Amino acid sequence: MKVFVDIGAHFGQSILKALNPKFGFDLVRAFEPSMYAQKRLSRIKDPRLHVKPYALGGTRERRLLFGAGFLGASIFPDKANLVEPTQRETIEVRVAHEELEDLLIEENQVWLKINCEGSELAILRDLHKFDLLDKFEQIYIDWDARKVPSLRIDLADTISLVTESGCRYVSAHDFEETGWIGVEKWLVAGSDDRLSSDEISRQDFREYQLLKFPYSTLGFFKYHFPDLWSFLARWYHRKR
To answer: Considering 14, 94, 107, 210, which has the largest number of Cβ atoms within 10 A of its Cβ?
Structure first.
């Protein structure tokens, strides 16, 4: 069975890519702790999708999620560019290896995407501790911990740990695009039949064309004009 695991699913941008029949996933397991984001995910009607309403980490605990419901929400209050950090939810965190080891059996091909705003360090260290990293077919990591000053030392150690483990992983920045655009490029590049962009369904292509401009533009404003980004994000949140 071919499985896609999405840790940090947000509104399902990457899930919609993975559900494309061209990629052949039989199961999509997504983890998203924000109640607001979970409501958005409930709009995706596909029997292959199973959403888990909690976050993953290295220990069982309850944490505050800062900027809940917004892009870039994090359990780390010192993360750069948090949108509406006063918008908070108390979320449940469960242990990564306990939630994933049932999938990591010999007959499965499991693709893991991690984009969880600093929590990737605890997740990866936990999976490494239980010798599970090399059981994934492919791993896509967005090193969001680089935006969290309190995690800088742990970030360097974790990158070394993952690299030395010998697992098959790529960084989001290897594709010059982050977010769902980077995920799509990773899925295309890693597929056995080497799918080209032209082979992606017309529906996905239209979605790509409609979303690529606003995502890349808002990304520019997010980092260069944080006040404008916050205003646009609050407006979008109210509208949805």
So the answer is: 14
